[in-house]
Amino acid sequence: MQFRSTRSNDPQVSFKDAVLRCLPDDGGLYVPSMVMDLRQFFLYMDTDTRYPELTAALAPALLQGELNPFSASRVAESAFNFEPELIQLDENFSLLKLDNGPTGVFKDFGIAFIAAVLEELLKNNSQAMILSAVRGDTGVSLSHAFHKRKGICSVMLYPSGPIRGLDPRTFVPAGGNVIPIQIRGTFDECQRLVNETILDRPFAERYGITSASTINPGRLLPQVFYFLYAFVKLKKSLRGELFFSVPSGNFGNLIAGLYAWKFGMPVNGFIAAMNSNNAFGDFFHGKEFVSHRPVSTNSPALDVGSPSNYERLAAFYDEAPAVMRNMVYPESIDDAATEAAITRVWKQYNILIDPHTAVAFAAAEKRFSSGSIGENGHTVILATGHPAKEANLVSKCTGQPVKIPGKLAMLQKKADPIAVIDPQIDALQSAIVSCF
Length: 436
Ligand SMILES: *Cc1c(COP(=O)(O)O)cnc(C)c1O
Hints:
Blueprint: E1 3-5, H1 15-21, E2 30-32, H2 39-42, H3 51-62, H4 69-79, E3 85-88, E4 93-97, H5 107-122, E5 128-133, H6 138-146, E6 152-158, E7 163-164, E8 178-183, H7 187-199, H8 201-207, E9 209-210, H9 217-234, E10 242-247, H10 252-262, E11 269-274, H11 280-284, H12 310-319, H13 321-325, E12 328-332, H14 335-349, H15 355-369, E13 378-383, H16 391-398, H17 406-409, E14 414-415, E15 419-421, H18 425-433
Parallel strand pairs: 4-13, 5-6, 5-9, 6-8, 8-15, 10-11, 10-13, 11-12
Antiparallel strand pairs: 1-2, 3-4, 7-14
Helix pairs in contact: 3-4, 3-9, 4-5, 5-6, 5-9, 9-10, 14-15, 14-16
The structure holds pyridoxal-5'-phosphate.
Residues 105, 107, 247-253, 301-302, 356, 384-385 line the site of pyridoxal-5'-phosphate (PLP).
């Protein structure tokens, strides 16, 4: 499969080149350039198929000529020592738990895959530097995924504020391959520095620089696999329509779901579950997209005013606007309804969910009880975060103590960056050069 920019139909590049370049020169984003039919690979797949096996079967089918089945199997087994888990709540609702990775959020899946696939694609003949803007626990996810990967180092740009969860023994000065740098500025400034560095092609090519941020197609693609995984687990028990409810901030998961559909997954629609930041609500109903200033809510990962995947989403709508209006249903859930959903899920099913998952759950219930989803319809709710990461809120809503697993408790430990610099590209470039 080739990749192209959202802004043109050619030139097309290989998966390897798309992953290593990250951004096309024309300012767009890379997307798959064709529709593939994967049905022969997953429709008859055994319900017991483990996640690494499913990935190892689907990745070479998508990336023919670039990743053979043996390499794919090596990549999948080395990426995933954690798996998604599908929990069927009742006839109408399931949870697809994606919080089993090292940092307890679904982002662990894409990051683990891109690290393993890069090591495989580079094998023995070149070096790469992964430059990423990080906040929250993404840096920890990256350092887990890239640590000890041959020929690759991971440079992470942090905004001002404490840095947590990193193990200094993995840093470059200690013989590791992780380089945390603090930028005196905001996350958006870190992101801008990443994009500028990647688009400075001569510099980026000299050091083999790419980014593992969500704009890299190497992170998007593996997210397609867990939608298909949910389908494989459920296919025998489905009696009616199938929907997915996706808590949406930058819309990476929703885009991945839409690709799963394009690649042949039988699905009736996706609920784009937003909190009070619902800048995309109007767009989904056919109006112009206008970015909003984000407001703070109790599901902070969804507080996004200007989603970075906008161009990918717009590309779907440009192709077939009427089809898309029957495929994606926006819902907006406020803080009170989010809390009520955490309480209800605990009372009804004895399961603790985090507020992001609760937004998607409340959105799914809303559509079901309004009759937009039939009596036999089934909705899979993406559980994108671990409840222990929002322990206070979850505890308040359920009256239950929330146990914090050991690996998540470690995320609280403070660490020092190996450099602190101003938000300027030359400062960053000299910091990078001094690492060699
Ligand atoms: C990042 C994140 C989201 C939003 O996902 P997008 O793909 O950006 O829409 C949802 N939930 C949690 C817990 C997250 O960390």
